[in-house]
Write a structure and sequence with these properties.
The protein is mainly beta. It has 5 helices and 31 strands. It binds 2-acetamido-2-deoxy-beta-D-glucopyranose (8 copies).
């Protein structure tokens, strides 16, 4: 299907031109002045519209440089565009950086509501830039009022970590001549810290992610949108091991609490729904050599997960406050669920549509089926002369849950169901005294919402399949004190999803629903060297000469108004360059990720 790839000259993507504005920053940057053009780092994604031209108006929302920004977020204000008729709002986030640094996590809040969570690319000495667009129309009521804007991007900036981040967020407003039916209210499940000029994210397990929420009595539809991601010892939670196997090898740092995570939403202590998260690989993940210039799937826009809580409206519309809690749990071989390491950042928003004719939504009691999940752990440790030489850990899990209730609004009585069906397999295989590692994980799930009437009474089914397989071999133990290290790594993973993005559909007032069909696969390998510049805490972000790899990605997307395909291939490493970039105005066939080692 993609015969005749277009071979691009390096110049095609080394576009953009770099001019240093002033001398206020460290010498490291001045050295770059006027030198190599910036390298574009990108996430492969279907464009949000045929053209971004023709905006009814534009507004710069954030323009800020995050340098030594640990604990000091950007705080600013937003006001809706004056004299501008618009329906669709798109945020364009543009980031540049020069120097070396780790990838950094960014969170953007309007008041106490999180709009966007992202990671940056890892910069290279000669500079990078990225542009990414996100449709934020679902937040329409927030975008039409004055807001405090808070963005964090905790960054270290000193003589070792020389990369600062220049961030510009522009809002593009389009008048698409549609009638919007946005949520009447967006209620945050967050720490509600904006008054203290802080982002409202909750940190787990060290805090409690609880909010008291009072829904309007005439709520007709309510959907919770959850953002959750791991940091530190939880950044790559899917390669953690069950805690009882932490000390199998004395030469590798393993993290505990299993490679399984469940993000839970509880309403008054009852489990309303769960997410078994997508294994995000941030731009330093597995091997930093894999992710320049093509970043990992979803790295620039960490996906939310939606749980329709409309079956709970009979309970929630009593005019009283109810406790909404977010939890993240791991597998524990003794108690089924257990703790996690530090930390997960979580927050959520309840999108509420009201029934203008209704006084109070009533409902039957909820029929819930929430059995405990099934887990099975198969461990196998091999040892020789008293030394553990290999470790194989296979964990499988499955879970089903559902909630059904009859709800009465001004338009009548109907039966609503929210149901989820999930399965998971994770195989971690350590050989060669733990220096060599293979991981294969498969997450499958479906979430279903059905209603016999009411607002958008169409059945919603979202299903996804997320296989990931990677290897990482360290020739000597990873040790920040040791110079001249080599990491040999490969990755193959996919995201295959058939979804009906419920919040956009409810916001856009549609009468027909088309599922979005996404199939994308990334495959790559890399040999990453650190020479004697490998100094403590910074070595892993500065590849030495000889570091080389390739990463390719197939991407196919189809929905009611987009058909899009793209194939890209890059040579990563010391001198990264995009060698193939081919776009298609149609869905393309995407080869499968090989996860046979998990079967
Ligand atoms: C996003 O912003 C960058 C930097 O200002 C700009 O170069 C790019 O064209 C913008 N993209 C869109 C779609 O407006
Ligand atoms: C950051 O980017 C903006 C927009 O491109 C530019 O005007 C500004 O000078 C840059 N700031 C720094 C410190 O480089
Ligand atoms: C979280 O809630 C639990 C149970 O209510 C309580 O024991 C614990 O002290 C709380 N932790 C924090 C940090 O508030
Ligand atoms: C071998 O691995 C087991 C399981 O992790 C561990 O309990 C034991 O201490 C290890 N033995 C040695 C010699 O490290
Ligand atoms: C780790 O175990 C190996 C094999 O038992 C042993 O030779 C080595 O000295 C140990 N290393 C450390 C740091 O304990
Ligand atoms: C460990 O990985 C290295 C580098 O990929 C490879 O050469 C070696 O054969 C592997 N050893 C084992 C026992 O798999
Ligand atoms: C690391 O490699 C460099 C050459 O790239 C060499 O000059 C240096 O001696 C090596 N250092 C160690 C500790 O092996
Ligand atoms: C070590 O790597 C750095 C960064 O890539 C490079 O600038 C330097 O020349 C390398 N040194 C040697 C001895 O290879």
């Amino acid at each position: 299907m993609y015969s005749g790839f277009v071979l691009l000259a390096a110049l095609h993507f080394l576009r953009g031109c770099h001019s240093l504005s002033d001398g206020t920053l460290a010498g490291e940057r001045a050295v770059q002045s006027g030198a190599t053009p910036l390298l574009e780092i990108f996430q492969v994604e279907a464009p949000l519209r045929k053209t971004y031209d023709g905006a009814a108006c534009k507004k710069v929302v954030i323009q800020h440089e995050f340098a030594a920004s640990y604990g000091t977020p950007y705080v600013g204000s937003y006001s809706p565009p004056a004299n501008c008729k618009f329906t669709t709002t798109i945020f364009n986030l543009s980031i540049t950086s020069y120097g070396i640094n780790y990838d950094r996590l960014g969170l953007i809040y309007f008041g106490d509501v999180e709009l966007w969570r992202l990671t940056t690319a890892m910069p290279v000495r000669t500079g990078i830039f990225s542009n990414y667009q996100k449709d934020v129309t679902i937040f329409d009521p927030i975008l039409r009022s004055e807001q405090k804007v808070i963005m964090t991007m905790d960054n270290i900036y000193d003589s070792t970590f020389t990369g600062a981040w220049n961030v510009t967020l522009t809002a593009l407003y389009y008048d698409d001549h549609k009638t919007l039916t946005p949520a009447n209210k967006i209620l945050p499940i967050s720490s509600q810290s904006s008054a203290q000029n802080r982002i409202s994210v909750f940190s787990l397990p060290d805090g409690n992610a609880t909010s008291q929420i009072t829904l309007p009595r005439n709520t007709e539809r309510a959907v919770v949108s959850i953002l959750a991601s791991g940091n530190g010892a939880e950044e790559f939670w899917f390669r953690n091991v069950e805690s009882e196997y932490l000390n199998t090898f004395n030469n590798s740092v393993l993290y505990g609490y299993s490679p399984f995570r469940e993000v839970q939403l509880l309403i008054d202590g009852n489990l309303a729904g769960v997410s078994w998260p997508f294994p995000i690989v941030f731009t330093g993940g597995i091997s930093p050599g894999l992710w320049v210039p093509i970043v990992g799937i979803d790295a620039f826009d960490i996906p939310s997960f939606e749980i329709d809580i409309s079956p709970w409206l009979g309970l929630l519309c009593d005019g009283k406050a109810h406790t909404f809690e977010l939890k993240v749990v791991g597998y524990d071989s003794k108690n089924t669920f257990g703790s996690i390491n530090s930390n997960w950042w979580v927050s959520a928003s309840v999108f509420v549509w009201t029934d203008p004719q209704g006084k109070q939504t009533k409902g039957s009691s909820i029929q819930s089926s929430v059995p405990r999940p099934d887990f099975k752990l198969t461990p196998k440790i091999t040892s020789s002369a008293g030394t553990n030489t290999s470790m194989y850990l296979k964990l499988t899990a499955s879970r089903k849950l559902s909630h059904t209730a009859r709800i009465t609004t001004s338009s009548g009585t109907r039966s609503l169901t929210w149901a989820q069906d999930l399965s998971y397999t994770n195989v971690e295989d350590y050989t060669n005294l733990g220096y060599n590692k293979t991981l294969t994980q498969i997450t499958r799930g479906s979430a279903r919402y059905t209603s016999s009437g009411g607002l958008l009474p169409l059945p919603i089914t979202n299903s996804y399949y997320w296989p990931i397989h990677f290897t990482s071999d360290n020739l000597v133990p990873i040790n920040p004190q040791v110079k001249n290290q080599t990491l040999i790594a490969s990755i193959d993973r996919s995201s295959v999803e058939t979804t009906i993005p419920i919040l956009p559909y409810l916001t856009k007032s549609v009468s027909q629903i088309f599922p979005s069909i996404l199939t994308t696969r990334q495959a790559g390998d890399s040999v990453y060297f650190w020479n004697n510049t490998y100094y403590q805490f910074a070595g892993a972000i500065d590849p030495a000469k000889g570091t080389v790899g390739t990463t390719e990605q197939w991407y196919s997307f189809l929905d009611s108004d987009t058909a899009y395909g793209r194939y890209v291939k890059a040579v990563d490493g010391y001198e990264p360059v995009l060698i193939v970039d081919k776009e298609f105005g149609e869905a393309i066939s995407v080869p499968n990720t090989d996860v046979s080692s998990a079967e």
